Amino acid sequence: MFEYTPSPTLLAKRIILVTGAGDGIGRAAAKTFAAHGATVILLGRTTRKLETIYDEIEQAGYPQAAIYPMNLEGASPNDYEVLANTLENEFGQLDGLLHNASVLGTLTPLEHYDIKLWYQVMQVNLNAPFLLTQTCLKLFKHAPDASLIFTSSSVGRKGRAYWGAYSVSKFAIEGMMQIFADELENDSTIRVNSINPGATRTSMRATAYPGEDPMTLPPPEAIMPLYLYLMGPDSHEVNGQTLNAQD
Ligand code: NDP
């Protein structure tokens, strides 16, 4: 596991947007960021789940969160403009963005991959992070120390049979991360990196590996040290890196 001991106020006064904040790793990240002082914007497609996290953050006495229900599959470019403008009006800047939401699609040979599903997976896993980053970039430029984190996977670094659109989308995420990092190289106030969470106890993992005992895997809370490190000021110099949460 990546080792890092954060200060309790590591993310104080930071505004951080988390996609797919309603479940799994995104849920743990949102709560962990809030526990370290951040104001977290919870973006996801199931409002009920977002409300539960919101309440948990409030009950814990962390900074009040915000909810932004949005289905990344159906969202239009204009929806991203509306989101960026809303965030600008409400908060003025963004200090962090965790691109976490994604869908698995199906595990099947490329030869037989369903075309409609291919487009759906690419829309959520690749096009949405592109549109969100592009429209929100102006908000990061208003922040003194902004961190963008893309979420990859082992199959985004080495192709593996049957992982189809999911694997291809994660390769593309690594490429997009590198391009944004290179383009922003001379902007010392924005860094862009990717995380491979590694096998983690979530519903996506259980769907991909139905025969596996989930209790043999770390829960999302256990992989948070790398997320905190990359979101906070200690990673200020780190840009364009592909990192593993469980190394
Ligand atoms: P989960 O399926 O548990 O959670 C995914 C989250 O993304 C859910 O909150 C889901 O919303 C949200 N989401 C999915 N589709 C959309 C959409 N169209 N619009 C908005 N939100 C959406 O996945 P994990 O927590 O396991 O995965 C988190 C990230 O980590 C993903 O990028 C995944 O690829 C990556 N990863 C995970 C690994 C693991 O072992 N768990 C290993 C390697 C990478 P809802 O709750 O409403 O369904």
Summarize the structure.
By secondary structure, the chain is of the alpha/beta class.
The share of residues in extended strands comes to: 5-15%
Give me the CATH superfamily: NAD(P)-binding Rossmann-like Domain
Order of helices and strands: EHEHEHEHEHEHHE
List ligands, each type once: NADPH dihydro-nicotinamide-adenine-dinucleotide phosphate
| Annotation, overall tally of beta strands | 7
**Main β-sheet: number of strands, strand sense, barrel status?**
7 strands, parallel
CATH class: Alpha Beta
CATH topology: Rossmann fold
The CA-CA distance between the termini, in Å, is 5 Å
- Helix coverage percent: 40-55%
Shape: globular
* Coarse structural class: alpha/beta
Named at the architecture level, the CATH assignment is: 3-Layer(aba) Sandwich
Kindly report the average pLDDT value.
97
Total domains: 1
Number of helices: 7
Low-confidence stretches: none
Strand order of the largest sheet: 3-2-1-4-5-6-7
- As a whole number of angstroms, the C-alpha radius of gyration is 17 Å
